[in-house]
Description:
Helices cover 27% and strands 20% of the residues. The protein is an alpha+beta fold and 265 residues long. The strands form 3 sheets. It has a 5-stranded antiparallel sheet. A 3-stranded antiparallel sheet has the order 8-9-10, covered by helices on one side. A two-stranded antiparallel sheet has the order 1-2. The longest helix is centred in the N-terminal third of the chain and has 53 residues. The model has no long low-confidence stretch (mean pLDDT 78).
Amino acid sequence: MIDVAHVLRRDADDSEKGLSLIELIVAMMVFSIIIVLVGTLYVTSQKVVQSSSVTSKDAGVASNVMNELTNVLRYGTVLPDPSNAQNTVAAFVSATPSSLVLYTYADSTGGTDSTATPKPVMVGFFLGADGTVTEKRWKFGATTPTAATVTSVAPNSTIKLGGPIIAPTTASPLAGVCQDPNATDAPVAPAATAGPNDVPPLFTYCDSNSPIAFASGAIPSASLQDISSVSVNISMNTGSSTGSRGIVLAGTIDMLNLGGKSGGS
């Protein structure tokens, strides 16, 4: 005859045993795997969001710099030569791979006097050691600002356009820069072009169909009057590894007042 009380006591003892050691280890392993997977997914998603945010910021800064350069360069102008009415003074005061200074009618009445006659201003763009592009403006007064003004006279306004922009590692332009596909004359190829790992100049200066060569780190004074367009290459590296280029914005700005081609970027 079955001892009902004994069976009930045995079932009660079995229910109080709980998990075995093996079952506990397996459960902990499964739980650990789930935690690792969830943690990895979270970290990855955070990196994607951060990278997207940095890329968006870099693109905004690059666009801001390019838009301001376009606005100023498009209205570049030569000046009458006060010593010879038959000649003109070149629009560019100085031109290097990472800076430029020119005369322009962009966004200004231009003068320090109270006359309503529009006057040009002298505007400079400079790539600093920290990668920030700074715009400086000098208004026309009793005398015309010159190259000496840049270092001897405080600008009337200074604006930091943004950065960091990677400093050029070579003075050689990108292949094909400055070439007009509609030109009938063959372009003069530069002595060397920037390689895939080089950071090309922030500014490359073009005549009608070819890049103008730098000499001692700048466009020679005699060649400043030949500039008719400027090729701009903005390489950003915010949040990227050293030497890498996360955002690259490039384009050629035609200066119609100086003989640039219409329809340029």
